[in-house]
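Re: the 171-residue chain
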Amino acid sequence: MYLKTPVVSFGQDTILCEGDSFRLSAAQGQPFTTYRWQNGSSDSLFMVTQPGYYTARAENVCGVDGDSLLVDGHSCFCAIYAPTAFSPNSDGFNDFFQLYYDCDIIGGTLKVFNRWGEAVFVTENPDGVWDGFFRSHGVPEGVYVWVFEYEFLEAERVRTISETGTVTLIR
């Protein structure tokens, strides 16, 4: 069997979103004799679950190599703001239901459902507004459920999220 000199390469420093994890490999597909991580672990794989500075060293009879990776933490959170009520009565105040957000949304679908689960409003425009009408008729007063499935950019990474809530329509 022919052994190559170890090569450990983690690539560029990266971001770890809150609640995410990923696996680092010191082996790079090569069966080395020994591995050593920053915490003393001797496994070929290391699970990254929090921000920090990660280092690994691989050694066999042909040589030694190592690499390090800085993992920054990020919330990777997009805050969605939704009114709890609106009154589509054309008085110029709260006439529409619309979501507001504090991130770079690149796409999404907003759906509003009545109490029977029927979609009374659907838009693929994240800035879309609902005027309280369905099939050219004003819907009755009541509580409606909204679901917003969207994608946004966070640290050059596309994240897909689904948010839900309710809105009360007042006539």
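The first strand starts at residue 14 and ends at 17.
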